[in-house]
Design a protein that fits this description.
Elements (H helix, E strand, L loop, with lengths): L3 E6 L9 E8 L6 H7 L2 E6 L3 H7 L7 H8 L1 E2 L6 E2 L8 H8 L6 E6 L5 H15 L4 E5 L2 H18 L1 H4 L2 E6 L4 E5 L3 E6 L13 E5 L13 H7 L9 E6 L7 H9 L2 E8 L6 E3 L5 E2 L7 H6 L4 E3 L6 E2 L1 H9 L2 E4 L6 H8 L3 E6 L9 H14 L2 H11 L13 H5 L9 E2 L11 E8 L4 E8 L7 E9 L2 H10 L2 E3 L4 E2 L1 E7 L6 H10 L4 E7 L6 E8 L9 E12 H12 L9 E2 L4 E3 L5 E3 L2 H8 L3 E3 L4 E3 L7 H16 L9 H9 L14 H10 L1
Helix pairs in contact: 3-5, 13-14, 18-20
This protein binds zinc ion (ZN).
């Protein structure tokens, strides 16, 4: 049997001709002869398909998202507006295409900002509307972001594309979400807080943007878990795409990337000089030796990338060429993306995109972020570098500090004994003290510091004293000895002026008469590690002005800065350079019996506070005693003020000459003014 169908354009008045189809089919020979004769042996029919029939019957050329995007996507909100160009973000086309591989049901992207993933996800949304329709849901971190992206990116994509425009019927918004009704599917655009209220409509395509920014809900499951449940009914044909700049190791994107993904891909680039494919790593981003100022590196574009296989040094333009030549390689199998997909058919695939792959991020910007942290030493800057540039999580090592780890820092010295010289070279630059003021007593730490920026230090003694006069005795009247009977005296003591109600005035009065004492006020964050406030009057609620004789210089201290420094020092292994030593924890009674020293309490208090990388602050979650921790912070402040980091050990001849001309020690020791004090004195004039 043969069947022929011809299509003709019928002449109509409308500008768009409607195709006419003609169908002819031979009549089987066993049919009645009269019928065969009447029709000339053929059945003949002319007909038209309706618009709807034609839309359904149209042969769909299946297009990959990367091909589709270049044809149909116009980008408005970008530094390079206009038609989507795969060449700008060379790592995205194959990533988008992989999401449409038959086995893949989830894509997980851990990335730096400015890597254009949000745009890539919108391409996937548009491609789905055209090629794999079904209810879609896009979730952003907050309402404003959702509304902005809806207005500036999603709607314009549909309006600007000839292909997508015909699906539009008009958008309807409601309270908990923004809903776009297309002719053949619906798109829900929501935000983390609205997911729980969005009901349980099933979705085929789910896009979760910046999941690490979703606020945590205490009452119910996380927004991403709730959203992911919606895709269950579309199993086998669903796609979830979640991506974020990472935050902490326990954050959703890092957990998904490291634990959930069945395959993890890195973008390997190709050196334009030697042609060797390689993974770009931060260590090969270089800048001229000796340049340490982040602003200079950024301003003069000093950073470059050192090829790992040849002497070529890539500037930003060469880096872009190297990235363009690259491809995705799976971490475990070493296979190229599509070879891996064909071979292993993973369901969930993960991608890692550090900032230095992006056309929008210069190598000098990356170096700048790193040097800024090196210069400031602030955890905030380290976190920024790790998350935003390396696209790696912040590691909460500090939160896991254990009492055993603190006690491992004990050396052999008995309590109260200063470490002596080794081969006649003195180890100790100065003794300092930190005093935590309580309503009825003081906690104190006396610590010996070495010379130079390593700041090796030794706990000499810590404990409790009841009164100011007991403090005087401990700090100024006692000489501390090393094993060879050399004498050491406390050179600076920092005391908390805000420790207890009613104590502030007493602390000021005490400090005013003791040149080595410094009044301290802790601030969680400020622009400089230490700010100086010269005070002339005692605080007085009734407003009467009583002069502080001689005045007091109050030190307002950024405790986040010094606590983070202290945490880093505590993480140094025993015996490593810059170690933070404790004295021995074994004490001997007169009877000769051994007993444990005070250090168990000390260790417990040193572990009370943990760093919260979200608030970027040190917190005391269980409200445990932390007096010795505060004392040690104040010891660091005292060492900072004495500038011990910048001091070198004295050489022997100078020391001998000094010993010969030694004058008797004054009753109340004096010290030179610190730079901060000098500045404050000047500003008072
Ligand atoms: Zn090379």
């Amino acid at each position: 049997m043969t069947l022929t169908m011809t299509t003709m354009q019928s002449p109509t008045k409308s500008s768009r001709p409607v195709p006419r189809h003609e169908l002819s089919m031979p009549i089987p020979a066993w049919m009645p002869k009269a019928l065969l004769d009447r029709c000339g042996g053929k059945v003949h029919s002319v007909f038209r398909f309706s618009d709807a029939e034609r839309a359904i019957l149209r042969k769909r050329r299946s297009e990959l998202p990367s091909v589709w995007s270049e044809k149909n996507r116009i980008v408005r909100m970008s530094s390079i507006p206009g038609p989507w160009q795969n060449i700008i973000t060379p790592y995205l086309p194959s990533l988008m295409d992989a999401l449409r591989f038959p086995s893949v049901e989830m894509g997980i992207v851990c990335k730096g900002p400015q890597t254009a993933i949000t745009e890539g996800a919108i391409n996937i949304l548009g491609h789905s509307a055209d090629h794999a329709p079904g209810p879609a849901m896009v979730v952003y971190a907050d309402k404003d972001t959702a509304k902005d992206i809806m207005r500036d990116r999603i709607m314009p994509m549909f309006e600007d594309s000839k292909r997508l425009r015909r699906y539009l019927t008009g958008a309807v918004g409601d309270e908990s979400t923004i809903r776009v009704n297309l002719r053949h599917m619906v798109i829900f655009v929501g935000w983390a807080g609205s997911v729980a209220r969005m009901g349980s409509r099933p979705v085929r395509l789910l896009i979760l943007d910046e999941v690490d920014k979703y606020p945590e809900s205490r009452k119910e499951a996380s927004p991403e878990a709730l959203a992911e449940k919606r895709t269950i009914t579309w199993r086998g044909r669903r796609l979830t795409l979640k991506f974020s700049t990472p935050t902490v190791e326990t954050g959703p994107i890092w957990v998904a990337f490291t634990e959930e993904a069945h395959a993890r891909f890195d973008w390997h680039v190709v050196c334009p000089e030697c042609g060797v494919m390689q993974l770009m790593v931060f260590d090969n981003i270089r800048w001229p030796e000796g340049v340490r100022d982040p602003e200079v590196v950024l301003k003069d574009h000093l950073a470059y990338y050192q090829c790992a296989h040849c002497p070529a040094q890539w500037d930003d333009a060469v880096r872009d060429i190297a990235v363009r030549g690259g491809q995705w390689i799976e971490r475990a199998s070493g296979l190229e993306l599509f070879t891996h997909l064909e071979t292993h058919r993973p369901g969930k695939i993960g991608f890692h995109i550090p900032a230095w792959l992006s056309y929008f991020v210069s190598l000098s910007e990356v170096a700048h972020a790193f040097l800024r942290w090196k210069k400031s030493g602030r955890l905030k800057d380290l976190k920024d570098f790790m998350n935003q540039y390396k696209a790696e999580p912040w590691q909460e090592i500090r939160a896991e500090r254990q009492e055993d780890g603190i006690l491992a820092l004990c050396d052999e010295r008995p309590r109260g004994i200063v470490p002596g010289p080794i081969n006649d070279v003195p180890r100790v630059a100065a003794l300092v003290a930190g005093i935590d003021t309580q309503a009825a007593y003081f906690r104190y730490v006396i610590r010996a510091f070495g010379w130079g920026e390593l700041e090796e230090s030794w706990l000499v003694q810590c404990g409790t004293v009841p009164t100011f006069s007991a403090l005087d005795e401990l700090l100024w009247k006692v000489a501390y000895l090393d094993a060879q009977k050399n004498e050491y005296r406390v050179r600076a003591a920092v005391i908390d002026a805000m420790g207890a109600p009613g104590r502030t005035k007493q602390v000021y009065a005490w400090c005013a008469k003791r040149p080595l004492a410094m009044a301290f006020q802790g601030k969680q964050n400020q622009a400089t590690p230490i700010a100086y406030s010269p005070l002339e009057f005692f605080p007085d609620a009734r407003g009467s002005k009583i002069k502080i004789p001689g005045g007091v210089l109050l030190r307002r201290v950024d405790t986040t800065f010094f606590k983070s420094d202290l945490a880093e020092k505590l993480a140094t292994a025993p015996g490593d350079p810059g170690c933070f030593w404790l004295h021995s924890n074994i004490a001997r009674r007169r009877s000769g019996a051994e007993h444990e020293n005070i250090l168990l309490d000390y260790a417990r208090e040193m572990c009370a506070e943990v760093f919260n990388p979200e608030t970027l602050a040190w917190e005391n979650p269980k409200q445990r005693a932390n007096h010795f921790w505060d004392c040690e912070v104040m010891c660091l402040v005292a060492a900072w003020e004495l500038g011990l980091r910048h001091k070198r050990p004295p050489n022997k001849e100078k020391q001998a000459a000094k010993a010969q001309s030694k004058a008797p020690a004054p009753a109340m020791p004096k010290r030179n003014l610190t730079p901060g004090e000098r500045l404050a004195m000047r500003s008072r004039r």
